[in-house]
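in:
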């Protein structure tokens, strides 16, 4: 079984405002598009955990309105991380609690990954199952990307980790357990951290393109 995790607790300081709820395509948001793409992939057979923190009441209200049926059915679950200021690792840990005993893999991605489409999620998960990796780490031209898949057997070790660096802490402890998957999809490395980048994508009808300063 697969549990999806979308890390959406950050303050988005470099953006200057909460980027999770910025407009993305018609009547959608950056976070909404990321969730929609993972839902459309139809690979999560347990639940999608959306970890929230900064402005959590505002984000939760948005999620409850847009995904009412998915929340009621249990396919989406909101996880509150009140320790979000301590770094991404706190959100990773928040997602690792209350997992089904049948859970086999966890898929981690970030809230600001609206370019990662359903087919990418499908491809990576199928490849992960094929190679039976403990940690499936996709890369584009040598740059680490998302989604990252981790076998549930590493859950207890991940809960022991300290620091702010998110899953990089786990990579450092178990480098021999990583399957580095070379992808030709630049989408997996694109973050929406800066307002200038967001504006360029918005002006380009939310299409991916190489950004130049």
């Amino acid at each position: 079984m697969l549990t999806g995790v979308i890390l959406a607790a950050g303050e988005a300081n470099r953006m200057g405002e909460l980027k999770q709820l910025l407009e993305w395509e018609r009547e959608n948001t950056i976070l909404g598009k990321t969730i929609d793409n993972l839902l459309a992939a139809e690979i999560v057979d347990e639940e999608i955990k959306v970890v929230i923190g900064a402005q959590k009441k505002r984000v939760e209200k948005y999620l409850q309105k847009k995904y009412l049926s998915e929340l009621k059915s249990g396919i989406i679950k909101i996880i509150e991380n009140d320790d979000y200021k301590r770094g991404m690792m706190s959100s990773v840990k928040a997602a690792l609690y209350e997992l089904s005993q049948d859970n086999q893999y966890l898929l981690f991605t970030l809230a600001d990954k609206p370019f990662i489409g359903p087919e990418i999620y499908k491809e990576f998960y199928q490849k992960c199952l094929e190679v039976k990796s403990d940690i499936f780490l996709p890369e584009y031209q040598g740059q680490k990307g998302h989604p990252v898949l981790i076998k549930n057997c590493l859950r207890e070790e991940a809960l022991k980790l300290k620091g702010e660096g998110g899953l990089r802490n786990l990579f450092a402890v178990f480098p021999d357990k990583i399957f580095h998957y070379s992808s030709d999809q630049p989408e997996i490395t694109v973050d929406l951290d800066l307002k200038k980048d967001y504006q360029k994508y918005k002006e380009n009808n939310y299409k991916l393109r190489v950004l130049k300063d």
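note: Residues 118-131 form the longest helix (14 residues).
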